[in-house]
């Protein structure tokens, strides 16, 4: 259906001014969005064209945001062990992902923005860098990018792949775009059997089901130790709302007011910690908390540790493991509003019990498995969540039992990173002469700009 992809390409090209305006708006709160904007449209004036070096493959990993970049870090660690000579080309779509990705770079590696999904930007990106293989993390498959890679003979791997029911329905509604893109993938490494089933329904050929890369996370020992030391100094249990999304802090305030009203003694011995998902909301949340009459102590202002306050605010990036070390129990952000939930595996690896709401469709199997293992608890509302979290945090026996179960749960599911890296290495070895017939070369002709 060449006409459909051509139409999509023209629409994407015409949308460029809208993309620029959106980036400018985002940059007001997150200055990172104002950096190297032209890279998004295939312009690399500050970067000479990549020159291939024999036996040094350029491995391109695309990790759109923070969570995907952290998963990419786990995979990259194994890839470097199996392919020591690789050079990394890392692309990101968000400012938080880009900032986190900078930690992964070694001398000779390259980091640029994800190209916008119009034919000219994609072609310029692929011809400037000419990657040996492309690895897309989790869900980041774009029709234009897939077509461009087929045209330029760049094999694509969808790693740590997941697809929920809502996304599958969207892919089926746009099957004229989505199905050819999924069919173009050289290898698909699914997280779960349910993900594999949905990916096949979308048109992908699933290579393997290997589990979630995030189980292979190695908690930062220094961060954990610092958090545990601060917890010890606090002298009372700490309950965290972890990776909260927009609207959940207001729900948390309502639940806290309800808890204090119904059982003042229950809330009194607990220190509250809030760690929002998105940094551009830090100041807004401080205003919300202070408007409710709460005293706030911000992590960014700590010198020798947390200061006495009603609420500690984790307004820093890259320190989730410190916060999990500081907390006795975590309320899972994104699960109390219909947002699909955030990653709970990192909490389990740090030995932090989790209380989650009803909305965990982004990590359904991990959420259900953690509850079954005893390292997490599911509730139907944030009111109930606060009650249960306080009960766990103030009961040494319950807390110890859930902590052990969480650690065992995380340990049991390890191994996806090594197996995924082995599959990707196999794809890389077979790239010579690679031809993908799912898209015809004519779909992105030279005259499409």
TrEMBL record:
Keywords: Cell membrane, Lipopolysaccharide biosynthesis, Membrane, Transferase. InterPro entries: Glycos_transf_N, Glycos_transf_N_sf, Kdotransferase. It catalyses: lipid IVA (E. coli) + CMP-3-deoxy-beta-D-manno-octulosonate = alpha-Kdo-(2->6)-lipid IVA (E. coli) + CMP + H(+). Its main location: membrane. Residues 36-217 form the 3-deoxy-D-manno-octulosonic-acid transferase N-terminal domain. It is found in: Cell membrane. It comes from the Bacteria. The keyword Membrane applies. Signal peptide: none annotated. GO terms for molecular function: Kdo transferase activity. Its EC number is 2.4.99.12. The active site is at residue 68. GO terms for biological process: lipid A biosynthetic process; lipopolysaccharide core region biosynthetic process. GO terms for cellular component: plasma membrane. It is an enzyme of class 2 (transferase). SUPFAM superfamilies: UDP-Glycosyltransferase/glycogen phosphorylase. The record marks 138, 214 as: Transition state stabilizer. Gene3D superfamilies: 3-Deoxy-D-manno-octulosonic-acid transferase, N-terminal domain, Glycogen Phosphorylase B. Pathway: Bacterial outer membrane biogenesis; LPS core biosynthesis. Involved in lipopolysaccharide (LPS) biosynthesis. Catalyzes the transfer of 3-deoxy-D-manno-octulosonate (Kdo) residue(s) from CMP-Kdo to lipid IV(A), the tetraacyldisaccharide-1,4'-bisphosphate precursor of lipid A. Belongs to the glycosyltransferase group 1 family. This is 3-deoxy-D-manno-octulosonic acid transferase. It comes from Comamonas piscis.
């Amino acid at each position: 259906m060449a006409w459909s992809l051509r139409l999509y390409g023209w629409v994407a090209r015409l949308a460029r001014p809208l993309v620029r305006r959106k980036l400018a708006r985002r940059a007001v709160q997150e200055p990172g969005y104002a950096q190297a904007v032209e890279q998004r449209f295939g312009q690399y004036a500050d970067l000479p064209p990549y020159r291939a070096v024999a036996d040094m493959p350029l491995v391109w990993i695309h990790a759109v945001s923070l969570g995907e970049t952290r998963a990419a870090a786990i995979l990259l660690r194994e890839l470097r062990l199996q392919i020591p000579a690789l050079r990394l080309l890392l692309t990101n779509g968000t400012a938080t992902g880009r900032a986190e990705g900078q930690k992964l770079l070694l001398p000779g590696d390259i980091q640029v923005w994800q190209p916008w999904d119009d034919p000219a930007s994609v072609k310029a990106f692929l011809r400037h860098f000419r990657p040996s293989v492309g690895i897309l993390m989790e869900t980041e498959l774009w029709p234009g990018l897939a077509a461009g890679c087929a045209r330029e003979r760049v094999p694509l791997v969808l790693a740590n792949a997941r697809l929920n029911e809502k996304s599958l329905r969207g892919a089926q509604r746009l099957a004229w775009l989505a199905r050819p893109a999924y069919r173009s993938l050289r290898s698909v490494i699914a997280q779960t059997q349910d993900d594999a089933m949905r990916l096949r329904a979308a048109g992908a050929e699933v290579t393997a089901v290997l589990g979630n890369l995030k189980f292979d996370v190695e908690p930062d020992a220094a961060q954990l130790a610092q958090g545990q030391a601060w917890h010890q100094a606090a002298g009372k249990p700490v309950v965290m709302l972890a990776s909260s999304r927009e609207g959940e802090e207001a729900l948390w305030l309502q639940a806290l007011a309800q808890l204090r009203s119904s059982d003042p003694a229950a809330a009194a011995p607990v220190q509250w910690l809030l760690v929002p998902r998105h940094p551009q909301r830090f100041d807004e949340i401080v205003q919300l908390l202070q408007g409710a009459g709460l005293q706030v102590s911000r992590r960014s202002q700590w010198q020798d540790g947390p200061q006495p306050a009603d609420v500690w605010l984790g307004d820093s990036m890259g320190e989730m493991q410190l916060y999990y070390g500081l907390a006795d129990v975590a309320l899972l952000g994104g699960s109390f509003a219909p947002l699909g939930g955030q990653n709970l595996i990192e909490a389990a690896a740090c030995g932090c019990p989790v209380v989650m709401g009803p909305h965990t469709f982004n990590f359904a199997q991990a959420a259900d498995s953690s509850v079954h293992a005893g390292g997490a608890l599911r509730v139907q509302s944030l009111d109930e969540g606060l009650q249960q979290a306080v009960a766990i945090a103030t009961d040494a026996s319950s807390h110890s039992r859930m902590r052990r179960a969480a650690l065992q749960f995380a340990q049991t599911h390890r191994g996806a990173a090594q197996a995924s890296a082995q599959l990707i290495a196999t794809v890389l070895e077979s790239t010579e002469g690679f031809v993908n017939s799912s898209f015809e070369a004519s779909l992105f002709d030279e005259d499409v700009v």
